[in-house]
Specification:
Layout (H helix, E strand, L loop, with lengths): L1 E6 L2 E4 L4 E9 L6 E7 L6 E6 L6 E3 L7 E6 L4 E6 L8 E8 L13 E2 L3 E6 L1
Parallel strand pairs: 2-11
Antiparallel strand pairs: 1-3, 3-8, 4-5, 4-9, 5-6, 7-8, 9-10, 9-11
């Protein structure tokens, strides 16, 4: 069992920045891939960014490419999502995902665990 706790969400003006953090605990693996997905009300969960166990391989959804950066600190079992140039359409609950398979994938269902999410709201 893995527990994931997201933090860093909030309300920000368009064009602003936020950094989300997710701390994994429990029966974590040193070779786990992690990811961020988001879901807005009435919409399907959307892949945002993912990162392989080593931090060398990353993947981004097309809608955030060039604006968001995912990174991780394995010493802290933490993954980050640096969000810049935020747009109103980025408004969603952002969830941190975790899977034991080391390679990153861009499908939310591939991940074994998800956190409770953190709300990101961007004013238009």
């Amino acid at each position: 069992q893995v527990q994931l706790v997201e933090s860093g969400g909030g309300l920000v003006q368009a064009g602003g920045s936020l950094r989300l953090s997710c701390v994994a605990s429990g029966r974590t693996s040193s070779v786990a891939a992690m990811a961020w997905c988001r879901q807005a009300p009435g919409k399907e969960r959307e892949f945002v960014a993912g990162i392989g166990w080593s931090g060398l391989n990353v993947a981004y959804g097309d809608s955030v490419k060039g604006r968001f950066t995912i990174s991780r600190d394995n010493r802290k079992n933490t993954v980050y999502l640096q969000m810049s140039s935020l747009k109103h359409e980025d408004t969603a609950v952002y969830y941190c995902g975790y899977k034991y398979i080391a390679s990153v994938t861009s499908y939310p269902n591939d991940y074994d665990y998800w956190g409770q999410g953190t709300q990101v709201s961007v004013d238009s």
